[in-house]
Amino acid sequence: MPVVWLALATFAIGTEAFVIAGLLPAISSDLGISAPAAGQLVTAYSLAYAIGSPLLAVLFNNVDRKMALAMALSAFIAGNLLAIVAPGFLLLMASRVLMALGAGLCTPTAMGIAVAISAPERRGRAVALVTSGVTVATVIGVPLGTFVGNQVTWRATFGLVAALGALALVGVLLRLPRNLPATTASFADRLAVARHESVVYAILTTMLWAIGGLTVFTYLAVPLQLIGFSSSDVSLALLVFGCAAAVGNMLGGHLADRLGPIPTMAMSLFGMAMALVLLSAALKVAAPDLGRYLVLLPVFAWGICGWSFFPAQAASLIRIEPQAATIALSLNASFMYLGFAIGGALGGIVLSTAAPADLGWVGGLSVGAGLAVLVGRYRRERLKVA
User: Fold this and answer.
1) Is residue 200 predicted with pLDDT exceeding 80?
2) Distances (CA, A) of 294 to 234, 280, 285, 287
3) Of the candidates 184, 202, 220, which is a domain's last residue?
């Protein structure tokens, strides 16, 4: 089944995007830099993805889809190989940018190919399979990559991701047909969708959700290690988060169908904000022995609530612009990664000016702001209907 190779590609990309959180202490120690400085590897990756993805999608619009995907995966693999041999922080930063540009072209291209090679009645399932690669990465790829990086060396994790990307590339070259139709939208098409008021509210909500999540997730290993978590314990915490995220992703889609996207998103954002606040509270006040167990509860709740937001948001965007759903979802992804970039930078500022346990307060505040924007959107849409 050719779509499986596309899912493997997004699995490799998802692992790369989030595994850095578990490797942060090892990278900062090995390169002799602070944790906030190392965290800017997340900012660089996410910013390059947010800006590069729509630009590259238009630039490679007339390139054969299979060739564009192969080029994207090759750049992603090259970035990981460069990270393995990077002698210092600047070259490692450059490698992350190269990975992000490859990932930013790969993901939307893979989704477009999934639609093109599937029968009409199977297209929804094909897209879901491709996007599930990222969800599975949070459950398997990130904990595994963190474990490998902490038991061997953080460079070995980049080697693991490069191998996954290479396997996906072989599958793409051997199993996908050529001459697939191009479906990438122009800048004018994207701007037309972006002018829709509800879309503006939606992507702003997504950005604030992403800022809140990555402010904490990027540096999660730092406060955990301060209360006694070993490297293996950090891997376990990331596994707990990943399992909860997978549950949340399925739950969010189910609730969006039953309750509607906006009520589902409201519950998700409220629950996520509370979980982040409780995480900071547990880190602040719990005794070390008790805190090691207490923090896993808000981490689990954060995973469920945080990732139940995303499928509901996707459903809401499809309802807003059913004729241009692909463009709306692409814009949403760009603003998600822009939020990731801001979150990585904001978390570094918190670590530099306050305490690691304060990350949850700041993240929760950002998610709460996203909830406020969602409520504003709901009220405006209700007024229009009335």
Assistant:
1) yes
2) 14, 11, 11, 10
3) 184
